[in-house]
Design the sequence.
């Protein structure tokens, strides 16, 4: 069964360092998303990406964040200069629009710990 | 704008008892509604969804949910809880005809006692 895969599963980084979180969406999907979940809090939308550009983003997705689809399979989230409050679980998801295909499929997540 | 409210951050039931997890939504257009489950140290897995048609939807692992437009609710139920149901459950809403970006509730942790 096709699935969204994320690497690494856990990343520890020093405050101020850049991190790149990687995702391989399901191959025929067209929309890609990043969400984050701070420990004990809700799953929050960060950004969606369609047709090689950002289609929507939340207030959380500031200039520290960027997304890229560098090739036909990977979808990355870059945090330019990490802060302690960036520590969270980051989920990648993908979907393909259509009446019968309305849900987003999520990866296992990358736990980012900023120290 | 769309939002989801999940009543109760924790729900505790005995094994074999009815499970009821509450979700109310707000949406300016007809919603698509979802329940996702997150087992410890795992990602989000779709349990069930409502898009159009039958308002009672059945999902995996014996769960079902009923869309009630008049009550703006999409509560999740299971007749008999199993120990393996212990997990975090998230209700989500996305708008129809749009980009299907789901908005999640805060989640409800289901605790099952033997």
Sequence:
């Amino acid at each position: 069964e096709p699935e969204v895969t994320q690497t690494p599963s856990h990343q520890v980084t020093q405050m101020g360092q850049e991190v790149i979180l990687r995702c391989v969406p399901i191959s025929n999907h067209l929309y890609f998303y990043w969400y984050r979940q701070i420990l004990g809090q809700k799953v929050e939308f960060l950004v969606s990406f369609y047709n090689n550009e950002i289609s929507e983003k939340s207030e959380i997705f500031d200039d520290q964040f960027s997304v890229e689809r560098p090739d036909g399979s990977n979808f990355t989230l870059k945090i330019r200069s990490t802060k302690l409050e960036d520590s969270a679980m980051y989920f990648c998801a993908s979907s393909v629009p259509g009446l019968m295909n309305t849900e987003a499929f999520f990866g296992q997540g990358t736990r980012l710990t900023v120290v | 704008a769309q939002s989801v409210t999940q009543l109760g951050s924790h729900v505790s039931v005995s094994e074999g008892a009815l499970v009821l997890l509450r979700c109310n939504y707000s949406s300016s257009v007809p919603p698509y509604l979802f329940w996702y489950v997150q087992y410890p140290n795992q990602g989000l897995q779709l349990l069930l969804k409502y898009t159009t048609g039958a308002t009672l939807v059945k999902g995996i692992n014996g769960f079902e949910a009923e869309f009630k437009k008049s009550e703006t609710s999409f509560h999740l139920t299971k007749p008999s809880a199993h120990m393996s149901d212990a997990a975090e459950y998230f209700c989500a809403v996305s708008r129809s005809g749009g980009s299907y970006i789901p908005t999640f509730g805060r989640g409800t942790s289901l605790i099952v006692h033997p």
Summary: Chain A is about 0% helix and 50% strand. The radius of gyration of chain A is 13 Å. The interface with chain B takes residues 4, 6, 31, 33, 35, 41-45, 48, 50, 55-56, 91, 93, 95, 97, 99-100, 102-109 of chain A (CB under 8 Å).
